Amino acid sequence: MVTKATVCLVMNNGRVLMKTQTRGDGRGLLVLPGGKMESKETPQACAVRETFEETGLKVKNLETIGTFKFYVEGKGLDYLVHIFSTNSFTGSIRSTDEGKVKWVNVDKIPFNRMWDGDKYWLPLMLQGDRFDARFYYDKGNKKTIKYEIILRR
User: What DSSP character marks residue 130?
Assistant: First the structure.
């Protein structure tokens, strides 16, 4: 069964909002806010809900960037992730039991503490590109075996 999820890039004055994930497959990794879609929830509504639950920020004016499809060796398609970005929000950041939240300078993003595939797509997103991507991971979800990024025009 394919898990549907979202990711939301929240920007503020040259900084990206990130969290150190405390549970799930990405435990210990630095990630963008986001999570699994609930039944009958739209991708945009999920991105708004998950960002608020994980960070305390109420995001608005979301831009649709594209999608990721994550394939895991031996399993096939595992995740379909809808990607959004915004620099429009209200509230103050707060950490939760899902992770410690912090602002990270764009020029100091620690890709070595993130999912292996993030180094391929996040720079594109930061320069304003829209795209759809496929990532193929090994069985342990640690290494990208191959990937394909198709820029949207």
Answer: -
Question: Quick check: 65 and 98 in contact, CB under 8 A?
Answer: no
Residues 6+ apart with CB under 8 A from 100: 19, 20, 22
Side chain identity at 150, as an amino acid letter? I
CATH of domain 3-88+101-151: 3.90.79.10
Distance separating alpha carbons of residues 29 and 124, to the nearest angstrom:
20
Instruction: Identify any residues that bridge with 136 across adjacent strands, giving them in sequence order.
Output: 71, 146
Predicted model pTM? 0.93
Tokens standing for residue 130: 């829209």
pLDDT digits (tens, 9 = 90+) for 30-83: 999 999 999 999 999 999 999 999 999 999 999 999 999 999 888 888 899 999
**Under 8 Å between Cβ of 101 and 18:** yes
Secondary structure element (H or E) that encloses residue 123, with its range: helix 118-126
